[in-house]
Amino acid sequence: LRLTGYALAAAAGAYILLFLIMAAYRIGYPFELEWMEGAMVDHVIRVLEGRPLYAAPAIEFVPFRYAPIYYYLSALVSLVIGVGFVPLRLVSIVSTLGSFTFLYLLIRKETGNWVFGLVAAGFFAATYPAGGTWFDIARVDMLFIFFTLAGLYVARFHRTLAGAALAGVLFSLAFL
Fold first, then answer.
1. For residue range 88-115, what is the model confidence (pLDDT) as tens digits?
2. pTM over 0.85
3. Residue 162 to residue 168: CA distance in whole angstroms
């Protein structure tokens, strides 16, 4: 039984490693990996220029109906490393790694078994190709999942007033 657990942990770790390899390979790709990425960069440019995100549609710009936090966070990263696909993809990759971490922590703490935690994170990583390889692209999805998982973890395991407040902040950030 112990050997089976280690085999599962190794397979889960392999899927996480494969995601990291693919993300490292794709982060610097100079063209859109998905049809929305270019427009996501346009949104970040508007934030950096101090222009409104949610203006009336025009020929030059039609806003997506996503909440703003991904754009603002990506704009902060863009201030450090420059504008383009890389900062937005980096936000998604870091959010994915954070999601893997909170899945691991949630399941490990619930079951008391690190193998089950790693298998949960690895199983999620294994859905990367089946889900359209969107864990590392310039989209809001992984940031939403990260804040949702972080909020679930805090709400479940920090049962104090401060924990409830932090969970509320994390769920609000997921909404935004």
1. 999 999 999 999 999 999 999 999 999 9
2. yes
3. 10
